[in-house]
Amino acid sequence: MPYFLIIALQGFCVYHAIKNRNEYYWFFVIIFLPVIGSIIYLFTQVFNQKDLNVVQNEIVNVINPTKKIRDLQKQLDFADTFQNRVNLADTWMELGDYSNAVLEYEKALNGDYKDIGILKKLIEGYYQTAQYERVVFCAEKIASKPEFMRSRSQFLFGLALEEEGRSIEAEENLRAIDQRYSNYEERYMLTQFLIKKGKPEDAKEILNEIIIESQHMSKPNRNKYKQVVNNVKKLASSL
Questions:
Q1: Angle in degrees, CA 118, 187, 228, rounded to 5
Q2: Using one digit for the tens of pLDDT, what is the confidence trace for 139-186?
Q3: Which of 187, 194, 212, 231 is close enough to 199 for a disulfide, judged by CB 3.0 to 4.6 Å?
Q4: Max CA-CA distance within the chain?
Q5: What span, in angstroms and rounded, lies between the C-alpha atoms of 168 and 239?
Q6: Helical pair 98-109 and 116-128, crossing angle rounded to 10 deg
Q7: Closest C-alpha to 236, from 211, 218, 215, 216
Q8: Where on the phi/psi map is residue 110: left (φ > 0), alpha (ψ -120 to 50), or beta?
């Protein structure tokens, strides 16, 4: 098998294993047994879950993510619909190109800021591109909606409010994310905010809760949140 095909096959298998949070031993199988290990992985973890066409498309997207963008752009050029534009924006977002994502979401809304799902995505995009005033603008349009309450969007709203100098409102919205057995990264950021605001005891209480919760995490979550838990422990020990 040509070398570049082996690398492509390994790359897809590693991507699939990370995406589906498969057991860590699969990474060793794929890496140290490039051809055999990847084939075993495909037949045991992929082919029994998805058909061959989907797998082939995923391989292409991993190797050449810009192809997916080009294909979606062609679909949009052929039919300029709301959904086609959102699909393109979603893909830009997945690739971490928040500027292009925001541009396409804005075009999809066309000045009609009523779609809650798109507004939440815009909040993410605006925050990632440091457009804090726009974060606040979008968040205030959906602040009373159940989908907004205790969501990441509300947390980003709080961070943006802080950037805009509205600290009291910021804390109110940031604290909403403090839900047990979830939102570990956001809660860690909340404790940093509280320390900055001269409330170390409030911060320490949340840090200790996260440490206790970490002892009851499933194995996938222990792996997923390992770094943030380490950061939490380090911060807690310094207070």
A1: 105
A2: 999 999 999 999 999 999 999 999 999 999 999 999 999 999 999 999
A3: 194
A4: 62
A5: 23
A6: 150
A7: 211
A8: left
Spatial CB neighbours of 219, under 8 Å, sequence gap ≥ 6? none
- DSSP 8-state symbol, 44: I
- Give the whole-number percent of the chain exceeding pLDDT 70: 83
pLDDT band for 19, please (50, 70, 90 cuts): confident
Q: Cβ distance 61 to 49 under 8 Å? A: no
Tell me the C-alpha distance between 161 and 143, whole Å. Answer: 13
As given in the structure block, the two tokens for residue 3 are: 């070398």
Token readout for 67 is: 């192809």
Indicate the helix (H) or strand (E) that contains 222: helix 219-224
Work out the percent of the chain whose per-residue pLDDT is above 90.
59
Spatial distance between the Cα atoms of 68 and 50, rounded to a whole number of angstroms: 19
* Alpha carbons 97 and 102: distance in angstroms, whole number: 9
